[in-house]
Design goal:
The protein has helices at 11-23, 51-60, 161-171; strands spanning 3-8, 30-31, 38-41, 66-71, 75-76, 87-92, 99-103, 120-122, 128-133, 138-142, 148-154. By secondary structure, the chain is of the alpha+beta class. The strands form two sheets. The protein has a seven-stranded antiparallel sheet. A four-stranded antiparallel sheet has the order 5-10-7-8, with no helix packed on it. A hairpin with a 6-residue loop joins strand 2 and strand 3 (38-41). The model has no long low-confidence stretch (mean pLDDT 90).
Length: 176
Amino acid sequence: MYFKEFETLTQQTMDSLWSMLNDASPDDWYRIVNHVEWALRIPASIFNDNPKTKMLIDNFVEPERLYIQRLEPNTSYHWHRDYDRNASMSVLLNCFDNSYTLFGDKNNKSLGPGHIPNIKPLKYKPNSMYLFNGSEWHTGFNFSNEMRYLVSISFTRPFTMNDAIKFLDSNFPSAD
């Protein structure tokens, strides 16, 4: 499984994230490594009104692993697997039609070198938090003229997306 929507964030949370973003100075942005996008740290408390997200953070996320990433207009990432996490949570702050996260089967050479078959798009819904399987090949595209802002919350390894689903299912049983 590549991704799973699991919680709609409150409007207060979304407003707080935008407020942090808008109030940030250029010096607040940093790069984790020189070839990775710019990031802005955010506090776990910003998710206090979102029980599923907050419980996952409190149990499986180190404080320095919560941030907003930005992707420049009309750019993309290279296809990659996350080097420092197996799974994460993410919400796209500014959802627009020409911004994509794609998953694919880069190791499948059936179409020849350089081709990536079985592409699956993650079309973010506004205010929706997703579990994200960073151990699978993925990329991001921003075909817009706007900066793309994505909240990224990294689980401490070896926690996986399946671990997160099991944890949520045991703590938030469905009302069937």
